[in-house]
Amino acid sequence: MFNLPSFRLGRLFGIPLEVNPTWLIIFVLVATTLSFTYYPGEFPGRAPWVNALSGIITALLFFASIIAHELSHSLVAKTGGIKVEKVTLFVFGGVAQMEEEPAGPGREFFMAIAGPLASLVLAAMFFLAYVGLSAAGVTDIVWAPFQYLAFINFWVALFNLLPGFPLDGGRVLRAVLWGIGGDQLKATLWASRAGQFIGYTMVAVAVLGVLRGSLDFIWFGLIGWFIAMLAEASYRQQLLKATLEGVRVSAIMSPAPVVAPGSMTLEELVEEYFLGGRHSRYPVESAGSIIGLISLSDVKRIPRDEWATTYVAEAADRDLSRLLIDGGEAADSVLPRLTTPGPGALLVVEDGRLVGILTRADVVSRIRRASI
Ligand SMILES: [Zn+2]
User: What is the pTM of this model?
Assistant: First the structure.
């Protein structure tokens, strides 16, 4: 659901601001909780429309506070020369997308701490506004939102400081471990484990709540699940990057692949290559040169009764601009070509000759060997 296209709100400090449609879920949840539970409970006797309006305004200011938190991360990143793609509000809050990771632990530390600091400053400002206005005798309809915003921004800061990746506190932890040990990958591993621990603890709290008949912690549990998933994914990504750094495609490919002749029928191909063969795709050759790649799914696209009369060359994927790759290219740069929906394998050429085939499995086995 996070793949839904986001709406562009505009730009702040040169950074595009976007809202994902999933954000509406959390906005409605926060606004209704404020309007129907929080305000009627704290300030009884108010007209329902006053509570509703207060709820909506407070929710909007809350999300403006989240944007300020994310912008704060982004601005520190920008001053460090890191390009910020955009800031997006979505169902679990806000996220600032950067084009690259910070180059050193110091930069990462300041980038990470900037968000919670912004939330703490906001909490202090809202608190002062609330105390000042209530002391001046202004009606609670005016200061009640500030009181709530002081409280919620304080909690946003505290929650984000929990020391587990991908929370800000986890990034701080990673920066500190990275700074002490000098090993970014190991630091990521520990921060990610802490993140998974925090995430699954939140899930456990929600499950316990449900067992005791309370649905109050469902949202908390969902956020925990999301944190645990992200923690693991970010470690894997770091591992991938570290493992493939400086490695060439020719070093991780499967060399000397078995080649299927384009003049063969699909019937023959299935019998002689796919049945009993070890591979699920083969480079296709015609008149001494490579013309494409054939996989079992290419074959399945042709009706069964046409297999005897269809040639491999006709059914093969022949988009060579997409399939061919030079053996000298850097392995990490070809990853996007393997992970996005596509042929699932690349044909490795050197000096115009086919020297190997590179599949996702090759990359995975390389990573497995490196991580033992
Ligand atoms: Zn943050």
Answer: 0.72
